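User: Predict the structure for this protein chain, please.
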Amino acid sequence: MRHQILGSADGYVRTINGKDPDGFIALFAEGAIIDDAGRIFRGREAIRAWAASDIFGANVTLTALDTSGEENDATITAKVDGTFDRTGLPDPLIMTFNVVALGGKITKLTCRLARGIVKRLEKSHD
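Assistant: Here is the predicted structure, written as structure tokens:
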């Protein structure tokens, strides 16, 4: 289990936790795509609107639990907290964020509920 976050993935976590929407949008390439549990957002303006409501409007914070990959293709597993509607969501809410970058800009972000990660993380602490 590794907690060091590399490259653009580090900026993703840092700008969310730092409540920095301008810094957040600056991380993305003009034609970037976000797949948030099947909801697709294309381009920086769509990403800006998504982030304003689903991240910054909901006071989201991320606590990294595990990371894998490399600088331009990293996956972060994180505990997600905030003031969003938790109806139907597991508690704690653990998600994976796959961050793909090119030239220092995020080109694709995939956000998914983590499956089975809590038990695996608990075993690694035993």
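The longest helix spans residues 44-56.
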